[in-house]
Amino acid sequence: PHCLRTIENTMDWGLLVLFVGGSLLLMVLELKIPMAEPGEIRDIGHDLFKSFSKPLGGKFATFLNSFLLCGCVIYAAIDVILSDAVTVLLRHLVILFWLRFLVGVSTRLPAPGDFLPLSCDMPPAGCNFFYLFSCHTATITTVALHVTGKHGGWWWLLFISILLFQTMRLLATRGHYTADIIIALALSIFIYT
Predict the structure, then answer these.
(1) Which tens digits make up the pLDDT trace of 6-28?
(2) CA angle at 105 for the pair 118 and 78, rounded to the nearest 5°
(3) Which of 34, 91, 97, 127 has the fewest CB atoms within 10 Å of its CB?
(4) Which residues contact 10 (CB under 8 A, 6 or more apart)?
(5) Up-side HSE of residue 104: CA atoms within 13 Å toward CB?
(6) Three-state SS for 130?
(7) Is the model's pLDDT at 148 over the cut of 70?
(8) Whole-prediction pTM value?
């Protein structure tokens, strides 16, 4: 009907105005932000969560983080076994892992001076490989999209809790930069949908 086309056209114009206006605003804001000095790595996410670095950088939080991530990987493996074929979930996880590998090999970012690695963490203490997006975040987000799409219900609450914990931990301990988390979320959503 004509009224629906009018609403769609209005929404399209609204999105266009929002995009152009938002882009101009962001460009103006970016021009006002001073460049970081050599050796200085500022990160808004770390600034927000650094007061949690001790509890989130401890062995229990590291174990919990690894347990949750392994649970997601085990779920993907069980999904493949039960379906008796390579699943969409596994295909998307493989794409994300290979993208991370390619980006990581081609561009290594410096580890911040206040990076808090543990020997049982990934990357382990002494290793300096900062990849441009968080594979932890990408894996959990992709599994979350799959589980909530397949099973529905309140699963999304559990996965949002896991992602919030993961994000706070990575940022508080300087395990990743804020950009790594944002890019991982966007890539997961883009590749999965």
Answers:
(1) 555 555 666 667 777 777 887 77
(2) 65
(3) 34
(4) none
(5) 16
(6) strand
(7) yes
(8) 0.73
